[in-house]
Amino acid sequence: MKTFVLGGGCFWCLDAVYQKTKGVSSVVSGYTGGHERDPDYYSVCSGTTGHAEVVAVTFDEEEVPAEIVLDMFFALHDPTTLNRQGYDVGTQYRSSMFYQTTEEKILFEEAIERNQSLWAHPIVTEVSRLPMFHVAEDIHQDYYGKFPEQGYCQVIINPKLAKARKYYSAWLNA
Fold first, then answer.
1. Three-class SS of residue 37?
2. Fewer beta carbons within 10 Å, N or C terminal of the chain?
3. EC annotation (predicted)?
């Protein structure tokens, strides 16, 4: 099993897609990359903690290759916008990849290079060593699964799920 810690805007979006990805055994929403010892949703959303909203995606490489997990990441958010995804603005929404090993760092850098051709502007995704990972509050775990009719889920997450189904249907559960 391998775990990647990825930030691509609001963690609910990445969580929703990876929850439906074959070979993914768990997706944990959380915070990392900041200076506050015990961040919570409201402090992170204030933009003052330095943390990013992220997901820790644990998967079996025999069922879904690491490259597919990373390519999905780059397809599901705009990695060319600094500290912003749509209406979500601030460093907490930055495009980010947090590695735990040199091997992961290389995989992340290769994924950036591989996916750059899909974007007209340079990818600005931050690649950093993973500091402490803080698990987000229970309400944020599998948010889409709990609240699929909520407005944010309908307007923001559903189009991302549709895009994932279009390009990655072989890797998604129904």
1. coil
2. C
3. 1.8.4.11
Report which of 136, 128, 137 is spatially closest to residue 95, judged by C-alpha positions.
Answer: 128
Distance in angstroms (rounded) separating the CA atoms of residues 81 and 5:
19
DSSP 100-119: SSHHHHHHHHHHHHHHHTT-
15 pLDDT higher than 80: yes
Q: What is the mean pLDDT of the chain?
A: 96
- Tokens 């890797």: give the residue: 171
DSSP state of 172: B
Q: What is the pLDDT of residues 111-154, one digit of tens each?
A: 999 999 999 999 999 999 999 999 999 999 999 999 999 999 99
Please give the domain boundaries of the chain with CATH numbers for all domains: 2-169 (3.30.1060.10)
Exposed/middle/buried for 136, CB within 10 Å: 0-12, 13-18, 19+? buried
